[in-house]
Amino acid sequence: MEARKNFAGVRERIATLYETLREKHLLLETVLENSAANIYAKRKDGRYIYINREMEITCNVTREQGLGKTDFDLFPTEIAEQYRSNDLSAMMTGKLVESEEKVRAPWANSSCCPRRYR
Fold first, then answer.
1. Separation between Cα atoms, residue 117 and residue 96, nearest integer Å
2. DSSP 3-state assignment of 47?
3. Which of 15, 27, 46, 95 lies at a CB distance of 3.0 to 4.6 Å from 70, suitable for a disulfide?
């Protein structure tokens, strides 16, 4: 009988933790998707694992086109080399790196976009 009570308490705690995690995930997703900043995440090999809505617009790349791809798959070589160099510098130092990078925006030949790396 005591074991059933404990088990029910554990299940209730797991359900509460799951709901809290779901709410925090939803909040984070809402912030990322509604930000005016280009926000993305890459694996160490340079492949995109996340691209927010603003980056899709600014870089004229949809998630379907970008996820799993590298900068070299998506951008002209000059721009891709700049992005990758900044990625590697940030990974090697482990410090926050800020730089201004050229991007191909749909409304112009190129524009500068500040990017932060960690």
1. 5
2. coil
3. 46
